[in-house]
Give the backbone structure.
Amino acid sequence: MPHLLLKDLPRYECLLEAAAEFPDLDPSAAEAFLHLLHTGDEVFGVSDRSLAGHNISHGRFGVLMLLWRSRQPRAAKLLGADECVPGPRTPAELADAAGVTRATMTGLIDTLERDGYVKREPDPVDRRQMSVLLTPRGEKFLMEFLPGHFKAIAAIMAPLTENERKTLVRLLGKVQQQAAILNPRRESASVG
């Protein structure tokens, strides 16, 4: 479901008029914010349709990518990891890496395990813990799905030059930092 429930965004002139009634409304900030939300919804929709066509959710796909990244040093570097976490991952580590509660991660792992994409095994170092491993079926799914997924990402970003993409990443980073300041994640959210 989209986050912004507007098909057509208000024109800048309309935002200027609204600012006369609401002095705290910064028209250029509102315009940029609405376009950011609308773009996010459109991009998410492309990704959502692709994942739905393969009977997998964003959350489950994220877990598979975290597990794949932990097994593939080259993939880890490509996906932005400073260092590759070797070997299996615990549900708690996966929850922290995904930014979700442990209860949410348990549900994601349960469905992935039911579908044969992951398996739980006792941790080889600490037998009191469980490790989550990508199965051959899970790896096969990723190897078949990722080429098309990466092509879709490239197609979405095709209108931008390399420099524009770098500028976009830098600008979005600034917005992300400010949003994190205004809405810090509660530490208790990762403990579930």
